[in-house]
Amino acid sequence: IRLWDVETYKSLHVFNGHTNNVWCVDISPLQSNNDKSNSIGVIGGNGYTICSGSYDHTIRIWDIETTKQLILLNGHKNKVCGVKYGLNELLNIILYGLYNKIIRFWDIRSNKERIIRD
Hints:
mainly beta; four-stranded antiparallel β-sheet; 0% helix; WD40_repeat_CS
């Protein structure tokens, strides 16, 4: 995964770890508070995180500020084709789909998964 500065067209960082094609990414949303300040409700840290899904059957979460991999979810029997952070009070949930049409959600804090569609 390559992170770009869209104003300068410069590559800022390459996130290495996946061993096959990365098929999908999502960036954690900012949550707007009443005092108009922004804060991240996902995984700790002070900045955005990236969630990536790959044909290597893994989902990885990366801290953009430190450029480190924070979490690895592996053990899937199929390719990960879609990832999406939850919104509002569900910021610690990742919704994802596999190549075999299974849809699951993953609670990052408890590290538990549930099947939505099999």
